[in-house]
Amino acid sequence: MSRRRLLRGLSLAGVAAAAGSLGLVSYRDEVQAATVGPTSGEEHQWCRVVDLRACKGERKCVSACQERHGLSPEQTWMRTLSWQDEAGEHFMPVMCQMCQDPPCLRVCPVSATIKTDQGVVLVDQDLCIGSRACMAACPYEARYFNWSEPKPAHRMPAPSPNTPEFPANQVGTVGKCVLCADRIPYSKQLPSCVEACPRGAHYIGDLVTDVAVNGRSTVRLSTFLRDGNAVRFKEELGTNPRCYYIPGYGQPVGGPLVGVR
Ligand code: SF4
Questions:
Q1: pTM of the model as a whole
Q2: What CATH number should be reported for the domain whose range is 3-260?
């Protein structure tokens, strides 16, 4: 799947806008300037990479996420876009893009959405009043409303000194992917989606140390992004997402969207 074809596929899916404005991320300096800023003194700045060349739509990432966080089928922290063309079916996992400039954060009337010092966007479910303004503001449709009491789930430990512990899911609040923020600061375990992918398509990356891992291999993040012609989803909106997609190569992608699962 070429970058152009990926973008065409996304556009047809109604989820990408003008291809020309989707920036190609080529060098570490550019990545850091765009996502970290020159004043960050943090030890880590987390990001995601999804290598679409490896994704075959098995949805092991989705089921692992649902299981670990005690989510019911309608509580989707991750979903898979798919589209069909003459070469077959193509897949793209979509979740919270951990925007550096998140519109969801700006619209919250009670400041329940927070961004940690290491770049993870979270919802403090003890503060959330369920206004759902964030759901409307998110251009990635990454959030949902908890209409019913979720299954008992773990609480999120404070991912930084400035953020309190809070539940990851609670009735009457808005939920979304938390990037397994209770795992990554301690470097003990990978996010469940990363851990579960049998093909190594999901990576957790650190913009400071310039490293990304998928549980099988460790890569230099900037080189991986540059060599893979990585793109960011709806970059033209100025959300500055910290999720990078590496398009596949060689497959003629571009048919109509089949569905979202
Ligand atoms: Fe907020 Fe949506 Fe961006 Fe996640 S993807 S940080 S929910 S605007």
A1: 0.82
A2: 3.30.70.20
